[in-house]
Amino acid sequence: MSDGAYFQRDRQWHPPAYAPGYKTSVKRSPQAALISLNNTISEMTGPVFGHNMLGELDNDLVHNYAKPGESAIGQRIIVYGRVLDENGRGVPGALVEFWQANAGGRYRHKKETYLAPLDPNFGGCGRAITDDEGGYRFRTIQPGAYPWPNGVNDWRPAHIHFSVFGHAFAQRLITQMYFEGDPMIWQCPIVNTIPSREAVESLIAPLDMNNTIPMDARAYKFDIVLRGRRSTMFENRMEGN
Amino acid sequence: MQGLDQLKETASQTAGPYVHIGCVPNFCDITGVFPEDLGCRMVNEHTKGERITVRGRVFDGTGTPLRDALIEVWQADAEGLYPSPQEKRGMADPNFTGFGRSPGDMATGEYVFETVRPGTVPFIDGRPMAPHITFWVVARGINIGLHTRMYFPDDEEALKADPILMRIEHQVRVATLVAEKTGEAEYTFNIHLQGPKETIFFDI
């Protein structure tokens, strides 16, 4: 069961390659149609990473770049959720990588020129591998909004970038998480590359007071859905697949 | 009517210009968090097969190389087996990761992989596919990761019989998937995102 091809990607749901409101996409978008390819073993396999690759602080951005005894400045938050497939099943063993700006909206990157200062105790990267139910969690500080050269006065909403490996290269996904109630979300040209409001809503993490730790850190829940796959119960497959 | 009870896949967003922070932090001078960048070594001294170097650049629609792309590859080992739990045909070389990740050089845009030449793997109906490396490209300005494949120019007969390449309508475009041999064991595979030399990208 469920070892067949992955469900076709709904490319009306995802952002199109060419989305001129996001200027860089204009010259970086293919013009020819994609060539459709039934999943072969090359797409239905993928790297799987073991929990033993993780360091103790890999999912703690408040401390993983901080000097001993110090911590990053900003609103402390916990981000947690599950990686699921489109059939609603948890995806165990999925590597989730995340990166973000600091509380002032400044990235630790040599090509970043925003005048907001770096936080000496904040690097901005982390990773986790999902548990048997597909769950993951990490601790960080809430990132700030920052301006970027697109329109004259465009600002990104507060966001955390996510990169996810499921079990197959066909499931590979990079996306961004936004925060409930942020008025910048609906003005952002990158958010607005996504065609439907419904698809955008699925990238907005709600505040979760029930999982907020009193006097310590607030919590946001962010579930990620990867492609599901067909059952092979009526599929004839040749030997070698 | 009953519902299908299926979820929608999370919508993709661009990896942005600072993808390096999360995916290759050591490359962009964020050191001390991860011991090394994921996917930076595909082989070790015990890996079986013919060692090759694959390098290239990604170009935009004006012919300008991207200097902020992140390239990932996935390939079979020298015997044509994938080092994945989903591989049911046998045990892949334990000294080969099959997965590589390389950022383009910040000045030139060049990516590099030190790997082995992949063996042949079967198509869905059992016919052999020509040896290939699967590529996935993300960058600022790319809203959803682009999948393509690199094939080898020395596999002339296998290329002609490849079940995927054979059925591409515009055969003139197949050449965009074939690397150039630029050294004894070195292949150059340039990716053109847009325009007359546009690389074939797949919806997989």
- Structural category of chain A is mainly beta
Kindly report the greatest chain-chain contact and the residue count on each side. Answer: A-B, 94 and 82 residues
Mean pLDDT, all residues of chain A: 95
Largest sheet of chain A: 5 strands, mixed
Instruction: Please give the alpha-carbon distance between the first and last residues of chain B.
Output: 31 Å
Strand order, sheet with most strands of chain A:
4-3-8-9-10
What would your notes on this structure say?
The complex is a heterodimer of chains A (241) and B (204). Chain A is mostly beta strands and 241 residues long. Chain A has helices spanning 41-44, 197-201, and strands at residues 35-36, 76-85, 95-99, 125-129, 135-141, 146-148, 154-156, 159-165, 173-179, 204-205, 218-221, 224-226. In chain A, the strands form three sheets. A five-stranded mixed sheet of chain A has the order 4-3-8-9-10, with no helix packed on it. In chain A, strands 2, 5, 11 and 12 form a four-stranded mixed sheet that branches. A two-stranded antiparallel ribbon of chain A has the order 6-7. In chain A, strand 9 (173-179), helix 2 (197-201) and strand 10 (204-205) form a beta-alpha-beta unit. The longest helix of chain A is centred in the C-terminal third of the chain and has 5 residues, at 197-201. Chain A is globular, with a radius of gyration of 19 Å. The relative contact order of chain A is 0.23. The model of chain A has no long low-confidence stretch (mean pLDDT 95). Chain B has 204 residues and is mainly beta. Chain B has helices at residues 19-23, 156-160, 163-166; strands spanning 51-56, 58-59, 70-74, 99-103, 111-116, 121-122, 128-129, 132-138, 146-151, 180-183, 186-188, 191-192, 202-203. Chain B has a four-stranded mixed sheet, with no helix packed on it. A four-stranded antiparallel sheet of chain B has the order 4-3-8-9. The two termini of chain B are 31 Å apart. The mean pLDDT of chain B is 97. The chains are: A mainly beta (241), B mainly beta (204). The interface between A and B is large, with 94 and 82 residues. Strand 1 (35-36) of chain A pairs parallel with strand 13 of chain B, so a sheet runs across the interface.
